Each structure stands twice: as structure tokens, then as C-alpha cells.
Amino acid sequence: MIEQKLNELYQKFKSELGGVKDRAAALNLKALYLGKQGPITEILANMKNLSIEERKIVGPIANGLKEKIQQDVEVSLQKFELDEINLSLSQSQNKIDLSLRDSLLAKVQNHGGAHPIWSIQREIEDVFLSMGFEIIDGPHIEDEYHNFEALNIPADHPARDMQDTFWFETEAKPGGFRHLLRTHTSTIQVRGMKQRRPPFRFIAPGKVFRCERTDASHEMVFHQLEGMLVDKNVSVAHLIYFMKTLLSEIFKRDVEVRLRPGFFPFVEPGFELDIKCLLCKGEGCSVCKQVGWVELLPCGMIHPNVLRAGDIDSREWNGFAFGLGLDRLVMMKYAIDDIRHIHSGDLRFVEQFKSY
Ligand code: DAH
User: Which of 229, 266, 290, 318 sits CB 3.0–4.6 Å from 151 for a disulfide?
Assistant: First the structure.
């Protein structure tokens, strides 16, 4: 009698499972049959009322049925999972042939990796892209106008001496400008402004060149990332917000920042932005030279003369600009004590940053 009842129960379960359309429904059905209130649990609980002979027959059948239901549900779950994978693969644009990747990897024994400057640049670009900035580029070989003049640094300005310049020997055309290797990425400010109308925001990463004696913290070639935002009623609070967001993303934690006055002819007011030392949390250590703060990036509110050089009406528009030193950031992030390692081309250095 009970055998027949269990058999019928299983047939009923099978036909219900056949009608199930997704994983959730299959799991529900399992709960219905095997859960605390379910018929199998009830049969097993009632075993105590049966004679020993009956128990010997019913026990194994009921337990077997429980196992069969579990297995059937499992098979159906796997099928739904496979269907989902196949569906998402058939809809995906990027089909990946894993077998091909594995066989290719096996053959490559010594592959290259991203240089840390490149990696940090990409990381910063991602953060700015997510905040609506464009990424733009400019030439390494520049002229005096873009490097100095348009940035409010006229010929006799002492700020020109601060940036030891590699000049080209060729004479400037009459009324023209001499050529040089750009000493900063700020050259892209004027080019960027002239190519677009406000409001706009862009960043411009790249190499810069200075004719300097090298030491642990100076190189002749290094990397900057210039940024500029022009809009209406931009304030120092906006500048702080964007810089804080960027630095928190890079250092993967909340950072505290402060502004000190800094002089750069192309911004007014100009600032040096410091972050609270991440190593000692402001207590004072050798990295922050016991000050508790580390100087990280110069920035400021764009000088009206610079906006004018970009054909922008400074009575209507204003904005901020900043110049990040990428080498300094990499050195802080990875505790590198000599900037000359960065361009050494020494594989022992670069291979430490390889990711597999
Ligand atoms: N161009 C400056 C340098 O290389 C850095 C800089 C300072 C850039 C202030 C800026 C700024 O955009 O606002 O020393």
C-alpha cells in the first residue's frame, strides 16, 4: 500500500518538475517535497507507528525516494545554470575562447608587463573619465608661447628660470617663437581651451623635460598630468572636492588634504595641496620629514590672463587647474626612494610590477 503511495508521489513530483521553468521554481518544489511540512518528512516521522517488518520495507523506500528527489532537483538546477550561461554567451559581444587563451599562455614564457607610470596613469584616467573629463594630448616639442607666454609667464618673468629649459638651436622666425621641449604639461591648457568652448573639463598626461642635474628626486624626463575645469561659478571647494576624490581612489582610502599658498603665474590664487601622511597618519615620520603632511600637487584657480589666451571671456567663466607629478605618486605608492629607477630600463626594477 505505502509502496504504491510513494511511487505515486514520485510520479507526481516528476511531472511537476517537468513543468518547472527556472532555478527558483525547482528549489521551491524541492522544499515542498522535502521540507519540514513535506510528505516525505511526514512519512519518515510516522515510521515510529509502524511494525518492525513494515519499517524494514518502508524505511529504505522512503529514504531512496528522498535521495532520488534531491538528485533530480540537482540535475534540473544544473540544466538551468547551463541554459543561463549559454544564453548570456550568445548575447555577449566578447566571446572568449578559453582553450585558445590557455594554449597561448602556455607558449609565452617571458611576457612584458605594464610600467608603473603607465599603470598609475591609466588608474587616474579612469577616475577622471568617471567624473566627465576628456583625455587630451599635446606635442613634446613646443614653442615659447604655449610653454610660457600664454601661461602668463612673459619673457622677463623670473618664473622662467625656475624651469630649466631644453631649447632648440634653430632661430625663431621674425615675430615668431623659439622652440623647446615642453617643461610642463600646462602647455596643453591653451591648446585645449582653444579647441573647445566652455563649459569643459579635461586632463592631459604626458612626458615633460627639464635640463637639470639628476639626483634621487630629480630627472631630466618625468611625467605630469595636467587637469583643467572651466565652468560658471567654480570655487576652491570644487577644486578640493575633485582632488580629494581622485586621491582617495588612488590610495584606496579616505585622505585628508590641506591647501597652502603656492605661486604659479598661471593661477590666482595658487596652492600647494598636501595630503596627511598615509604612513604615520600625521604623527610625523621620515617619509613626511616629521611634518605629518606630504606635498602632493600644485593647483589653483585659472588666471584670467590664461583664460583670455584661450579665447574665453573671464567675466563669464572661471575654473581650476592642477598639475600632478606621476613619478612622485608612483614613488609614494610603492615606496621607491630614487626617481632614477623609473627610467632606468633595468628589468630588475620593472619586473617587480609585472602582474600575471
Ligand atoms: N606646471 C607646473 C609645474 O610644472 C605645475 C602646475 C602648477 C600646474 C599649478 C598647474 C597649476 O595646472 O595650476 O611646475
Answer: 266
